[in-house]
Structure formats: C-alpha cells, structure tokens
Specification:
The complex is a heterodimer of chains A (about 350) and B (about 325). The radius of gyration of chain A is 31 Å and the shape is elongated. The longest helix of chain A has about 35 residues. Chain A has a two-stranded antiparallel sheet with strand order 1-2. Chain A is built from 13 helices and 2 strands, in the order αααββαααααααααα. Chain A has a domain of about 170 residues: MetI-like (MetI-like fold, Orthogonal Bundle), CATH 1.10.3720.10. With about 325 residues, chain B is an alpha/beta fold. Chain B has a single domain, classed as Rossmann fold. Helix content of chain B is about 30%, strand content about 20%. Chain B contains 11 helices and 12 strands. Chain B has an 8-stranded mixed beta sheet with strand order 6-7-8-3-9-10-12-11, with helices on both faces. In chain B, a hairpin with a 5-residue loop joins strand 11 and strand 12. In chain B, helix 3 crosses helix 4, helix 3 runs parallel beside helix 5 and helix 4 packs across helix 5. The longest helix of chain B has 18 residues. The chains are: A mainly alpha (about 350), B alpha/beta (about 325). Chains A and B meet through helix 10 and helix 11 of A and strand 6, helix 3, helix 5 and helix 7 of B.
Chain lengths: ~350, ~325
C-alpha cells in the first residue's frame, strides 16, 4: 500500500515498445486553465427551464391562447350583450313572442319593425332558443358555469388529495397502510350512483333561498361538488403518496433530518417542491375531466338547475330539435370540445415541460 | 441498553454493543430480524479519524446512520461527549454531529440553490443575526471547501460530482460540528477528485479539529486518512487497529484477504504479491452462520468457530481481533 505521491520524473523509464502513455509528455494544468474548465452555462432555475420548454411547444401555447380567449369571452360577453341568460327578448319594452328558434344573425318581425323605425337592436350572434332567449349569452353563461365547475372540482380534488396523500406518504408504515385501504374502498364506489343518490337526498335536505350563486346552481351541482370532494380525490392522493414515497428516499431528505429540520420544514422545503410539477400537471388534466362529467350529468338532466344554463344542459335541450336547429347543438358541443381539448393539450405540454422523468 | 455503562471522558464518540435489526416480512404475519449491525463497539477521540471498512452490505452505512440516529438502534449505547444519545438528547446534538452522504447527486435538493442548501442548517438552528451575516457565513464555508463565491446562486445540477460533494461537505460544516460521519463520501468520485476531496477532509481536520467516522470500502483511501481502522464483516467488527499496524500486521483472515486485494500501482510488486481469493459468497444476513460469521469462507475454521462467536480481544497496542485461531 503506497502512501507517497507519484512523481512523474521518478517513474521507471518506459519501454519504447510499450503502448502505455508516456506521462513525461504531459504538463500540469495551470490554475487559469483549471478555472476555464469550470466555466458553466447560464444558471437556470427549474421553473424557468420548464417555462422555456413550454413556450417552445406550439400546441400548448395555442391551447393557452384559446383558453385566454374563452375566459375573455365569458367575462366580456355578459357585460356587452344587452340580453340576460334567463329573460325572453323584449323589443322596446314589449315581450317579443315571435323571437323563438331564430337562426344566427336574423331578426324577428317585431325587431325588424323597430329597426325600420330607426331603433337599434343588438344582433343575435347565435340566434335564439325555443323560449326566445339570446343563445349567445346562454352559451357564454354555460361556458362560465362549466369552467367554474371544472376549476372548483379540481381545486377540491387538489386540496384533499395532496393533504391526504402527503400525510400517508410521509409517515408511511401503519398510517399509510390504513389510509390507503380507505382509498381502495372509496375507489370501488360507483361515482355516478353516488351523484344521483346524493342529489336526491340533498334536494330534500338543502333548501337554498334567495339569489346566491349556490341557489342558482341548484342542489345537483352541490352534490356534484360533494361527490368530487368525497370520491374523485383518491387518484390524486395515490399519485401524491407515490411521489412522496420516492422523494422521501433521497439523501437530501436525510441530510435535512441530520441538520435537525422538523417534519413540517422537510415537507415544505424538500418534498413538496419536488413533486409540485406532477401535482399541477395532474390538476390541469383534472379540469377537463370535471367539465366532461358536469356536461354528461347535465345531459342526463342531473346538472345545473334551470334557467341557469351549462354547456351540457344546452346540448341536451338542443337534442330535441336536432334536425331543424342543428346550430343549437353545434355551439355548446364546440365549446365543450374546445375547452377539454385545450386543457388536455395544455396538461400534456406542462407534463412534457415539467415532469422530471421526461427531462433530458 | 446498558444503563450502567460509563463512557470514557476522553472519547468524543463512544459506541458500545450497537445493534440494528430491521424486521423483514417472511410470511403474512411473521417477521425475521435482519441483523444489519450486530454488536459493534468503537470509540473516537476529538479531532481523530476512525476508518470503517468492509464489503458492500456489511452494515457500515447502517452503523453511521444509527450512530447519528437516522435509524433508531435496536440495542446498544451511543455516547457523544459523555452524554447518552437518545431521541431527546439528539435534538440538542444535531448541531455537533453532521453527515456527508455517499451519492453527491441525490444528496442535494435539485430545487434549491447552493446558497440555500448550505444555509439550511444555519436556518434550522438560527445561527445568524441578519441576512448579510447568513450570506457571509455561507460564502466563508464555500471558500473553505474550495467553491467559487459566484456559484452561490446556482442549482446543484449545474455542478460536477466533485463540486457537489464539496457542497455537501460545506453543508455538513455549516453548524461548526465536532464530529462528521463521512458515509462513503468519496466512493462516487473518480480517483483524482477523490484525492482532492480527501486532502480537503484532512485540511479541515487540521483547521477545525473535527473528528470523522470515515466509512469506505477502499482500504487505500481509509489508510491515508485514518488514525485507526475498524474492519467489519456481516454486521460484526472483526478487527480494529492503528492504521499502520493494521496495514503491516493484519491478523484476522478476512483483513488479510482484503489487504491482498488492494490494487498496487507498481506492476512488479503487484505480480509478486499473492492475492488471497475468498471462496464462496457472503452469507445472507437473514441466515447467519452460527458462531463466527466468517467461518464459512475461512480456511482456518475449526469446530470452535461454528459454536461460538469470538470476542474482540486486545493483542497488544490496541490491536483488537475477533478470531479464535489468530
């Protein structure tokens, strides 16, 4: 076992036939040269790096633009268009009973008369429905409701799932075992049956008075939220738990423990930042699935309470006149398609940009 | 636990009969203990280095982790500075006992800057008076381990393995500890970087007077840095001696074969020395052989070895060997 450093000049002479590298032909690197080897590329944080990748993904950027346009539409349209989602069109203060089932950009007889007399009537961009309500405003409100349901439902899923999953994953052992068996039980409950049963029960129990947003949405929507809160978080909880179980094994968590950091600090500073990208991606993909569920429930008339429209109930109502008034199905269906597609593509883009497993 | 055990006040760290068993599920309801560490005893004086060697899976890392209480030991006593280390007292001792980890890639949080990684122990123990003070301390630590101050705002993935290990060492030094467990701290580095980092460990010891438990499987490295060396086999300590004594006069047959396997950078000497190749594999720690764990591969094994585990006995000058025949 040798302890002394090897001096190049003291080494035995190399055999001229040997193919070994002759160390005497090398010289030591100067400090400046050593420093040059250490020059590194510009520092990038994980977030900035991910955003750069996201910006280079044309599909994801297109989805963001579409979503921004939709959000602008649902905020501006109800302000600009002088009709409301629940009222029959009035011309000059009089109810216009002839303005039913009009095609896009047409006027009823009363309106035409009024225009001829010099009055101004806001055009019906998407026509009117069978009760004589402006369809454009109704679609805008329906989109609003559908998006709200999607965002709220995935927020509920996110909060419950992350809390539950991180507790189970971090503490592990028996806690994990019991919590995950509960998840397994919940996973096996039929969600549709639960929504129907809950909405029946809630209809009896809850009585919403007044004009609050909850009362206007109706008990079906409340039960939808409750079901999301009760059932749909299990997928998120499993995901978060799995992430935390793997991150917990990393030596930097042990290092934090050796430093004396408490559990709350370790979860906050080390574990959550390292699984946040997966959580956000999964939440983004949860939104279209919630919108889809809501549309489906509205379609089978378990959705929002009339006269509040949602995209699903609009599509459902349009079904009866599908051959004559096709446009009434096309508009809400188009919106549902646009929203779910945009969120799905955005979620995929986020995953490609931020998922650590797909990086480099 | 032996409540009557009195530690030697000269020792900074004292470990007596440390045992660490992990329950392994063998059936639906039955578990078998995996004896990762089975009765290990050693002591480290202030500012001294103890090297701990052994092959993969012999429990070296477990000793380090149980000592610093990342695991709760099944049995045995650990003392630090005369105080018994248990779940309560460890909270106050975290500042004095630190650890450098094996893998420089997984031991640094990829979402934190170097500044925050090194500053974490400072944050936890509130060791600074102001933001500026914190930054100054961190820059001082970085300088100590040979990192550029301009690297403070960078993320760990931007560094090479050697630089990452330096960051890990700076983090371990942040609280000004008196004892550091170096768990295979240089194994993941290539040889030239290993030399740099080991020399740095030695310099830091001279400057700061830290004691190390230096865990490694490379005898050359351990010999270079350690004052004493302990050899482990299957969770048990088989030989401890001063580094030079162990090198020149190995007694346990396992140590002899380990030493014969050390590569020697001179072909002439390498050819002339005889390599002792052990037969068979390491037995599973779940099914330990009776008596001495090494007897299944030992050419001197006798009846007695199968019946009783030999105790570590002093053969003069603090050279302790656990073997019946040597």
């Amino acid at each position: 076992m040798a302890k002394e450093a090897y001096d190049v000049n003291k080494m035995p002479k190399k055999n001229p036939l040997s193919l070994q590298i002759d160390l005497q032909k090398f010289e030591k690197a100067t400090d400046e040269e050593k420093h040059q080897a250490e020059v590194m590329s510009e520092s990038t944080s994980f977030f900035r790096d991910g955003m750069r990748k996201l910006r280079r993904n044309p599909l994801a950027m297109f989805s963001i633009v579409v979503l921004i346009l939709i959000i602008l539409m649902i905020t501006i349209v109800p302000i600009v268009v002088p009709y409301s989602y629940s009222d029959i069109i009035t011309v000059n203060g009089k109810r216009d009973k002839s303005a039913t089932n009009m095609a896009p950009f047409t006027y009823s007889k009363l309106e035409q008369q009024y225009i001829d007399e010099g009055g101004k009537v806001f055009p019906h961009i998407m026509g009117t429905d069978e009760l004589g309500r402006d369809y454009f405003v109704r679609v805008a409100y329906g989109t609003r409701i559908s998006l709200l349901v999607g965002v709220f439902a995935s927020a509920i899923v996110l909060i419950i799932g992350v809390l539950y999953g991180s507790i189970a994953g971090y503490f592990g052992g028996k806690v994990d075992l019991i919590m995950m068996r509960i998840v397994d039980v919940i996973y096996s409950l039929p969600d549709l049956l639960m929504i129907i049963l809950l909405s029946v029960v809630l209809n009896e129990v809850l009585k919403f008075n007044g004009n609050g947003i909850l009362a206007r949405l109706g008990t079906n929507m409340i039960s939808l939220f409750i079901v999301f809160g009760l059932l749909y978080w299990v997928g998120m909880a499993r995901l978060v738990r799995g992430q935390i179980l793997t991150i917990k094994q990393n030596e930097y968590v042990l290092a934090a423990k050796v430093s004396g950091a408490k559990s709350s600090r370790i979860i906050r500073r080390h574990i959550l930042p390292n699984c946040i990208s997966v959580i956000i991606i999964s939440a983004a993909l949860q939104i279209p699935s919630a919108i889809f569920t809501e549309s489906f429930l509205s379609f089978i008339s378990l959705g929002v309470k009339a006269p509040m429209p949602s995209l699903g109930s609009l599509a459902s109502a349009a079904r009866s006149g599908i051959t004559t008034y096709t446009y009434k199905l096309v508009f809400p269906a188009l919106m549902i398609g646009l929203i779910t597609l945009a969120f799905n593509l955005l979620g995929d883009g986020l995953r490609d940009a931020f998922d650590p497993k797909l990086r480099r | 636990m032996n409540m009557n055990y009195k530690p030697n006040p000269e020792n900074l760290v004292e470990v007596n009969d440390l045992k660490m068993y992990f329950p392994i599920k063998t059936g639906l309801f039955s578990t078998t203990p995996l004896k990762a560490v089975d009765g290990v005893t050693f002591a480290i004086k202030p500012g001294e280095t103890l090297g701990l060697v052994g092959e993969s899976g012999c429990g070296k890392t477990t000793v380090g982790r149980a000592l610093i209480r990342l695991y709760k030991p099944t049995d045995g006593d650990v003392f630090f500075d005369g105080k018994r280390v248990d779940d309560k007292s460890i909270l106050g001792l975290r500042k004095d006992m630190q650890m450098v980890f094996q893998d420089p890639y997984s031991s640094l949080n990829p979402r934190m800057t170097v500044e925050d990684i090194i500053g974490e122990p400072l944050d936890v123990h509130h060791l600074y008076t102001s933001k500026a003070d914190r930054r100054e301390q961190i820059l001082h630590l970085m300088e100590l381990v040979g990192l550029n101050a301009e690297h403070a705002t960078r993320y760990a993935h931007e560094f090479s393995g050697g630089q990452r290990q330096r960051i890990g060492i700076a983090r371990a030094l942040a609280t000004n500890p008196r004892f550091i467990v170096c768990d295979e701290a240089v194994s993941a580095l290539d040889v030239s970087i290993q030399a740099q980092v080991i020399n740095m460990f030695e310099d830091l010891q001279k400057k700061l007077g830290v004691a190390y438990l230096f865990i490694a499987h490379d005898l050359l490295v351990v010999h270079h840095i350690s004052k004493r060396i302990a050899v482990m086999y299957l969770g048990k300590m088989v030989e401890t001696a001063d580094a030079d004594e162990l090198n020149s006069n190995p007694m346990h047959p396992y140590t002899t074969s380990l030493l014969s396997a050390v590569p020697y950078p001179d072909p002439k000497i390498a050819k002339s020395s005889k390599r002792i190749i052990l037969e068979g594999d390491v037995p599973s720690p779940l099914h330990m052989p009776s008596g001495c764990p090494f007897r299944t591969r030992c050419k001197y094994a006798t009846e007695q070895c199968a019946q009783e585990m030999p105790k570590l006995t002093d053969r003069g000058n603090g050279h302790m060997v656990a073997c019946w025949n040597k």
